[in-house]
Amino acid sequence: MICSGSQGEAAEQFKRTGGEPVPKPAMSAILAEWDKYEVVAMPEGHGQKDLDDFILLLIRNPAFPQKVNDIAVECGNSLYQPILDRYIAGEDVPFTEVQKVWRDTVAGFMCDTSGFFEQLFPLVRAMNQRLPAERRLRVLAGDPPIDWDRVKTAEDAAKFGGIRNESIAAVMKKEVLSKHRKALMLFGTYHLMHGVAHGSAVSIYEEDYPNVTFVIDGFGIFDTSDFAKWPMPALAGIRNTWLGALDMSHFYPSEFYPDKDCNVHTATLPAEYQKPMAQLVDAFLYVVPRDLALREPVPADVALDDDYLTKVMERAKLMGYPSASNWTLERARQQTIKAAEHPLSGVPKNPDPALLKQNCLARKSANNKPE
């Protein structure tokens, strides 16, 4: 059977090779995976409100603390693990100190302006106050221990940006796997894939701890209209299915980059990623139809704090984020207002190379203007 998939606005044709995926109610299906695996890993926090809301429900399920010991997070600076431990344990820690855990990472905008993590940490703290000591949850910060007070140059920041997967893997090995504990990993999927050498944290620690991790992915740019009759949310294993036989190009947008002259090129995936999805992840999570997906709003305490937003963008410039080069407070306000007026995240699309070139030329022009 030849079926239509979607990548951006252009439909593509692909052949379904393999069995049909079998959707199961996601909550019970995910909880059951800890009976077979030490770690369940899934994406979080990347502006996907529906996914984040599901994770918060999962964690509050009464069965969760019966099966899981630790929650390892991408938006967590491991430098502040002692502060995080005290806070999660219920000690009297100023919230401004706890905020450093997710606001002072290498990950940038996703963590710095996250509403999800502003809810996650207080939620786990509150849960622990109701749980017996032996069932209390620990939250593990996976990001490198960067001290932003000591970062003065792009080179200083790059030292930490380049070791994120190694940092996550080290935390998992030391705090979870070597102690035979069970964990939920909440990271972007590129940190979680199997079989990509040192391209992901999971692949790094699987050299010593193989076959202990169940990796869940979202559908990305894939057209999910065929799954309208699936339960919501649903989890579907992809081994020996036509979904698992597809490669990454069906689910992830192409990556483009401009050179110094603003000519736009397509990035080529390394060979270890050029394989069927079933070799990279174990299941797909379907939360809502993608055209009805909600965008996570920027928290009010972030949107109204000009000094903090300025610091966020200064750090983004040090990390080399292209969008930071022509940022202003007024533009940030306009984007926040626009997002509030249009809460749907919209159908994911591939980047427009022409627009990328236009933006690159605009940045060059602005940077070349005389003072």
According to CATH, the fold-level topology is Rossmann fold
Shape: globular
Number of helices: 16
Q: Any idea what the radius of gyration is?
A: 21 Å
Number of domains: 1
CATH architecture: 3-Layer(aba) Sandwich
Largest sheet, in brief, is: 8 strands, mixed
Main β-sheet, spatial strand arrangement: 3-9-12-8-4-7-5-6
Reading the helices and strands in chain order gives EEEHEHHEHHHHHEHHEHEEHEEEHHHH
CATH hierarchy class name: Alpha Beta
Q: Care to describe what's here?
A:
With 371 residues, the chain is α/β, with parallel strands linked by helices. It has a single domain (21-256, 271-298), classed as Rossmann fold (3-Layer(aba) Sandwich), CATH 3.40.50. The protein is 36% helix and 15% strand. The protein has helices at 26-33, 49-60, 64-67, 81-88, 95-98, 100-103, 109-112, 116-130, 154-161, 164-175, 201-205, 242-245, 300-303, 306-319, 329-341, 353-368, and strands spanning 2-7, 10-15, 23-25, 39-42, 70-77, 138-143, 183-186, 213-217, 234-237, 256-258, 264-266, 283-286. Strands 3-9-12-8-4-7-5-6 form an eight-stranded mixed sheet, with helices on both faces. A two-stranded antiparallel sheet has the order 1-2. Strands 10-11 form a two-stranded antiparallel ribbon. Helix 2 (49-60) packs parallel to helix 8. It is globular. The protein starts with a strand and ends with a helix. The model is unreliable at 1-12 (pLDDT under 50).
